[in-house]
Design a protein that fits this description.
single chain, 213 residues, alpha/beta, Rossmann fold, 39% helix, globular, Him1/Fmp52
């Protein structure tokens, strides 16, 4: 467990999980600085640095030190508007963010993927998530934690119709397929960040629920 003040890099701080995670990070006594680039301004905080703009353009401007990086980026095919635009966010932008975090000497990357991620999947969404995971593994992180939540539950600032329709059923599905509250996922991410295991770890949704209780 970390005892020295931590410098954190967070992508996706305005999203459903990112909002919960940011709140937790800013209230952790061991966190000295959170660098959270975002498209719209975040509420001010003494330990928060918040460059505003498009993430891809902001990446070269980000500076260290960074110890741990969290990537909570994600969209849907419907929101993105095309397969290509979805891949640009959920794969290409995630990989670019991770590469920049590594340049800033981050040693642990925690990234939100999805249940069923598989680079050979016949389902486009799962295939892109799987390709993203493989690309991150190729970056040779000292510590890489990939979390694969089921359907995320919670109130989004920009509601997703499909998620709203599926949420009641998702709460009753068995095992790793049961939906997971975003606040629970955020707690699990922080607990995983405190672990110092080396190499790649993949954490499925049922284990995330347990860790985030």
């Amino acid at each position: 467990m970390y005892l020295t003040p931590q410098h954190i890099l967070l992508a996706g701080a305005t999203g459903l999980t990112g909002e919960h995670l940011l709140d937790r990070l800013l209230n952790e006594p061991t966190v000295a600085r959170v660098l959270a680039p975002s498209r719209r301004p975040l509420a001010g905080h003494a330990h928060l640095e918040n460059p505003v703009g498009e993430l891809l353009q902001l990446l070269p401007q980000l500076d260290g030190p960074v110890h741990t990086a969290f990537c909570c980026l994600g969209t849907t095919r419907e929101q993105a508007g095309s397969n290509e635009a979805f891949r640009a966010v959920d794969c290409d932008l995630v990989v670019a963010f991770a590469a920049r975090a590594r340049e800033l000497d981050a040693r642990h990357l925690l990234v939100i993927s999805a249940i069923g991620a598989n680079p050979t999947s016949g389902i486009f969404y799962n295939r892109v998530k799987g390709e993203m995971e493989e690309a991150l593994k190729a970056q040779d992180w000292p510590q890489l934690t990939i979390v694969r939540p089921s359907l995320l539950l919670g109130e989004r600032s920009e509601p997703r119709l499909a998620e709203r329709l599926a949420a009641p059923l998702a709460r009753w599905l068995p095992g790793k397929y049961r939906g997971i509250d975003a606040c629970v996922l955020a707690r699990a991410l922080w607990r995983l960040a405190l672990e110092e295991d080396q190499g790649v770890r993949v954490v499925e949704s049922d284990d995330l629920r347990r860790l985030g209780r």
